[in-house]
Amino acid sequence: GSLPGWEEVDRLVVEAHRDALETHEGEVATYIPRLASVDPELFGVSVAEVDGAVHTAGDAHATFSIQSISKAFVYALVCEELGHDTVRERIGVNNTGLAFNSVMAIELNDGHPMNPMVNAGAIATTALVPARSTDERWERIQRGLSAFAGRRLELDGEVYTSEADTNQRNRAIGILLQAYGRIDADPLAAVDVYTRQCSLLVSATDLAVMGATLADGGVNPVTGERVVAASVARDTLAVLASTGLYERSGEWLFEIGLPGKSGVAGGIVTVSPGKGGIGVFSPRLDRVGNSVRGQRATRFLSRSLGLDVFASD
Ligand code: GLN
């Protein structure tokens, strides 16, 4: 089936937003100092359909740093360049069951980054973006993520500086990957590009369009541009299904039944293959780093729009 009619989707997006406003649970991320000063009440919900229709509620145009959600889209760009088998072998597709910044996940697996949605795998993935220089690598990522969003995404310089000044752990992960021979590029330069990609500013509506591009087989439904091949969009969604919400990826799939990816600034993108993308933004996070209101609004929409891929009715 497809989505309900335009007015019904519009109404449900407003209702999902109103319903999730009831919770005030969770805490804003503070380990990146700049993230601590965000207004915790900002809350936006957006749905983009594969025909290009966009529905919004609340602060759907407020911008925030994309953080870990960038991992999904950089992964897609690298799959497009290097292909399914190479990326599978170099990065992996298995859940670690550990925190996104875990060093143990690397140590326990002979230096293998395990999957592209944890920091180790994401830094290794960024290092695989073909480029002659660090600047070129960054430009390709910025251009690629912008193509997913259908508009030029800009860096939040304050978030970038704040994370770059405090990311000793990610730098350690980069160097550990190098020690295991899992990264060929300069590891600190790769971590720097990774930190930049995490600092790109998006809105809930941008995330919805980025998700709808994956839902639409790699074609941005608003601009009509093909960003990646349909097989790459498919592979990206398969990875997200088991790894997109950190240690809560199983609970997410159980409750929502769709591939998604969260970030510590409070964004979540969710994809309903063939139908559309959901973008949400609310800064208060659960213990593992997923937006509390974002999860609730997405669950509401998955159920009311009939999107759960495991449901037969
Ligand atoms: N830039 C953040 C980091 O590396 C992203 C983490 C996240 O969103 N989970 O810590």
UniProtKB/TrEMBL annotation:
Domain of life: Bacteria
Keyword list, A-Z: Acetylation, Hydrolase
Coiled coil: none
Catalytic activity of the protein: L-glutamine + H2O = L-glutamate + NH4(+)
The enzyme's E.C. designation: 3.5.1.2
Pfam families per record: Glutaminase (PF04960)
InterPro entries: Beta-lactam/transpept-like, Glutaminase
Binding site for substrate: 68, 119, 163, 170, 194, 246, 264
Cited NCBIfam families: Gln_ase (TIGR03814), PRK12356.1 (NF009020)
UniProt record similarity statement: Belongs to the glutaminase family.
Subunit description: Homotetramer.
Protein name per its UniProtKB record: Glutaminase
